[in-house]
């Protein structure tokens, strides 16, 4: 069973007066600080006005009967939707509608037999920890790196944590204002991706830099410094076909997908997400499996890149096989998976088996 990330609770009493709302706001700030505030009093008051509106919306939503998911006062609770999407999304569909991209869609050839009713690549050593893209629209890099990590683990039996910073700095596929998963996969084919711990930090002896900087920097990739993980190719799953997407996840491993990160998605806390959202694709995530609840609700298992403070410890379960062919939030519209052939000691089929 999924574990829901703890959050700041809201009661009816919290919403009664300005004073009680301010108290709730201060409690939230003590847990998450602020996603925007510089510490200036005027900015803090401005953030409070946004927070009040969001808190009321979240509380009212959670009081409704029949919801399959909950919302929460997470770290984005003082942001408007426009501010949120500008800082924390960033995927661009790019060539999805062009003849060139359509030509790269290959007929799906299952390599692991018929897909079982449930599958989770986290249970088979093909998914690294949940990461955090920070206030940088680099979700496209995290989605692609996650897919390459999974593919390499399935084919070699060795789960390696690869460098999103390299892809952000060097691929030419985008920056912190957004990017294209398709071209980031192209880069992985041509150049490969090094381990997170092996990507060189900026040459500044006076500051400590984490491996991921949440900002684009000078490319420091050394193609002669092993280890470097490469893929042979990448392919689109037939779009708007959730059954094909299910088979691709089982047969080939974690799949990079684009979705619309909506207002409800922003505050998602747990449960099976059913919307509201549309198909204005703006966020790249990683599809790592699928399952079914005790009451028979089918869902996708999706890894996000907003840290474990969001959702179900960094994951979201999204309803599967809805009547709309594009899937919930457009999840079936732009799926891409990487492929790697031998020399590898383990093929995808035997790994799944």
UniProtKB/TrEMBL annotation:
What residue stretches are annotated with the Cathepsin propeptide inhibitor domain?
Answer: 25-84
For this UniProt record, give its keywords in alphabetical order, as a comma-separated list.
Disulfide bond, Signal
Record InterPro entries: Papain-like_cys_pep_sf (IPR038765), Pept_asp_AS (IPR025661), Pept_cys_AS (IPR000169), Pept_his_AS (IPR025660), Peptidase_C1A (IPR013128), Peptidase_C1A_C (IPR000668), Peptidase_C1A_papain-like (IPR039417), Prot_inhib_I29 (IPR013201)
Q: Where is the Peptidase C1A papain C-terminal domain?
A: 115-339
Any Gene Ontology biological process:
proteolysis
Question: What is a GO molecular function of this protein?
Answer: cysteine-type peptidase activity
Which superkingdom, per the lineage? Eukaryota
Q: Which SMART domains match?
A: Inhibitor_I29, Pept_C1
The family this protein is said to belong to:
Belongs to the peptidase C1 family.
Entry protein name: Cysteine proteinase
Which organism's genome codes for this protein? Oryza glaberrima (African rice)
């Amino acid at each position: 069973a999924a574990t829901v990330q703890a959050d700041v609770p809201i009661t009816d009493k919290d919403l009664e007066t300005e004073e009680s709302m301010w108290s709730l706001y201060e409690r939230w700030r003590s847990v998450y600080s602020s996603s925007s505030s510089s510490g200036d009093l005027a900015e803090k008051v401005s953030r409070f006005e946004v927070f009040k509106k969001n808190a009321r919306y979240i509380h009212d939503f959670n009081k409704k009967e029949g919801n399959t998911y909950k919302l929460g006062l997470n770290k984005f609770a003082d942001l408007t939707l426009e501010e949120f999407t500008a800082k924390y999304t960033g995927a661009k569909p790019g060539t999805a509608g062009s003849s060139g991209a359509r030509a790269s869609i290959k007929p799906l050839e299952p390599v692991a037999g018929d897909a079982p009713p449930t599958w989770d690549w986290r249970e088979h050593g093909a998914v690294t920890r949940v990461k955090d893209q920070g206030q940088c629209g680099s979700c496209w890099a995290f989605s692609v790196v996650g897919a390459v990590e999974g593919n390499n683990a399935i084919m070699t039996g060795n789960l390696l944590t690869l460098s999103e910073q390299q892809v952000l700095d060097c691929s030419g596929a985008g920056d912190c204002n957004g990017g294209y998963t398709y071209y980031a996969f192209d880069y992985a084919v041509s150049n490969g991706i090094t381990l997170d711990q092996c990507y060189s930090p900026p040459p500044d002896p006076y500051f400590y830099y984490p491996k991921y900087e949440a900002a684009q920097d000078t490319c420091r990739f050394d193609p002669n410094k092993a280890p470097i993980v490469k893929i042979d190719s990448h392919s689109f799953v037939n779009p708007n076909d959730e059954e094909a997407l299910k088979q691709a996840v089982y047969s080939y491993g974690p799949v990079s997908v684009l979705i619309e990160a909506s207002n409800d998605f922003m505050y998602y806390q747990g449960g099976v997400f059913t919307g509201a959202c549309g198909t204005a694709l703006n966020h790249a995530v990683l599809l790592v499996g699928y399952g079914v609840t005790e009451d028979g609700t089918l869902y996708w298992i999706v890894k996000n890149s907003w840290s474990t403070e969001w959702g179900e410890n960094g994951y979201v379960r999204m309803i599967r096989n809805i009547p709309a062919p594009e899937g919930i939030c457009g999840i079936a519209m732009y799926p891409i998976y990487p492929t790697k052939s031998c020399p590898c000691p383990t093929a995808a089929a035997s790994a799944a088996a």
